[in-house]
Design goal:
single chain; alpha+beta; six-stranded mixed β-sheet; two-stranded antiparallel sheet; 8 strands
């Protein structure tokens, strides 16, 4: 039986994106069993900022070659162009090519009802 994916590790500086409570896209160089998440799955987000948060996966992981990542997808991820996205990805995967398979994962902070389990404090507290 294959090990089920249960966590993602994030570089420093990405924590605020998740604390907003909004949906966040992450792209990874696909690794079997490490990036196979299913809609509704609760996983651990290990942030190198020193925090672990529970994240809810919003869609099954989508796999496609990096060359096929659309403008809408890389812009939702935060890149300004396909070249920008590839450059950012090469910071983590120096040998990355457009032929490699990407794992596209959408997640947000886990929720209880409609309320995220963590977040920024309201102003004025």
């Amino acid at each position: 039986m294959a090990k089920k994916a249960w966590r993602l590790i994030f570089a420093e500086g990405l924590l605020p994106h998740y604390l907003s409570g909004e949906t966040v896209w992450t792209f990874r160089k696909y690794s079997p069993t490490s990036h196979e998440f299913t809609k509704g799955q609760i996983i651990q987000g290990h942030f190198k900022d020193g925090v672990m948060l529970l994240l809810e996966v919003l869609d099954d992981t989508r796999l496609k070659p990096f060359r096929d990542i659309s403008r809408a997808e890389y812009e939702a991820w935060g890149a300004t162009s396909h070249e920008d996205m590839m450059g950012q990805m090469r910071n983590h995967y120096p040998d990355l090519t457009v032929d490699d398979t990407a794992a596209l994962i959408s997640a947000r902070l886990a929720r209880i009802g409609d309320l995220p389990i963590a977040g920024f404090l309201p102003e004025g507290i």
